[in-house]
Amino acid sequence: MKTKLIFLGPPGAGKGTxxxxxxxxxxxxxxxxxxxxxxxxxxDTELGRKAKEYVNAGKLVPDEIxxxxxxDRLSEDDATNGYILDGFPRTLTQAEALDSIAEIxxxxxxxxxxSVIIERLSSRxxxxxxxxxxxxxxxxxxxxxxCDKCGGELYQREDDxxxxxxxxxxxxxxxxxxxIEYYKARGVIANIHNDKADAPVDGIVARIMAALE
Length: 213
What we know:
By secondary structure, the protein is α/β, with parallel strands linked by helices. Helix content is 46%, strand content 15%. Helix 1 (15-26) crosses helix 8 and helix 6 (114-121) packs across helix 7 (162-185). The model has no long low-confidence stretch (mean pLDDT 92).
């Protein structure tokens, strides 16, 4: 079973949702760059301070800082036997840098039509307190308007509107297309297709697990 993984996919494809389900099955951590930023900034680490300067200025955090954060995280004990990188790499430059610090065994590429993404994200809601994500169609909270995990208030992000979503999808395709070709050439990519907005999460997870065997 392959355990050193990258999950690729456009915004709203379900990377975080599927990674959070697959990681416990493999006994490996799910490593999100968004979480790494928040953790390093909260702990006021040297890398966190550097990243904060860019975030506060509304600029993209440079690749070298992101890569250093990932390198530090992969050196921790719980990542010895594997990991799922969720949201990294985003560019070819990051992928090439990753090669020097990690041995990627498989890349799960979530292939979802734009129309499905727009329908799904338009139904997405998030917790104001813990940032947990739910979906009114595919993964609704047990109690309306209330987070299952912490009881916080659920809301819809301003960027989860069809016009903004389409712009995010176009940007993702332009940025990530070379990345998909990069891993395809190495023979480590597995495409998981999903053309339904309400596809059961467990069914997609089962297909991902089968692809990793």
